[in-house]
Amino acid sequence: VRWLPPVSGFLVPLEMSGIVVSQFILVSTFGACT
Predict the structure, then answer these.
(1) Is the dihedral of CA 25, 29, 32, 34 positive or negative?
(2) How many CA within 13 A on the CB side of residue 31?
(3) Can you give the pLDDT at residue 20?
(4) Where are the domains of the chain?
(5) How far apart are CA 17 and CA 19, in angstroms?
(6) 3-class state of residue 3 by DSSP
(7) Which of 20, 10, 14, 11 is nearest to 28 (CA)?
(8) Helix (H, G, I), strand (E, B) or coil at 34
(9) Measured between alpha carbons, how far is 20 from 34 in angstroms, rounded to an integer?
(10) Runs of H (alpha helix) within the chain
């Protein structure tokens, strides 16, 4: 259980940045298509 806070603390920003990157790619590809 001791390893849970560091892992979640690492995964949450990683997931957030992953969402931001995927949204940016989605917007840029959509903008390129139109």
Answers:
(1) negative
(2) 6
(3) 86
(4) 1-33
(5) 5
(6) coil
(7) 20
(8) coil
(9) 21
(10) 4-33
The CA distance from 27 to 21, in Å, is: 10
Cα 10–chain centre separation: 12
Q: What are phi and psi of 2, to 5 degrees?
A: -65, -25
Q: Report the pLDDT value the prediction gives residue 5, as an integer from 0 to 100.
A: 56
pLDDT value at position 12? Answer: 64
Cα 25 to Cα 1, 13, 19, 21, 33: the distances in Å are 36, 18, 10, 6, 12
Q: What is the pTM of this model?
A: 0.47
Tens digit of each residue's pLDDT (9 = 90 or more) over 1-34: 455 555 555 666 667 788 888 889 888 888 877 6
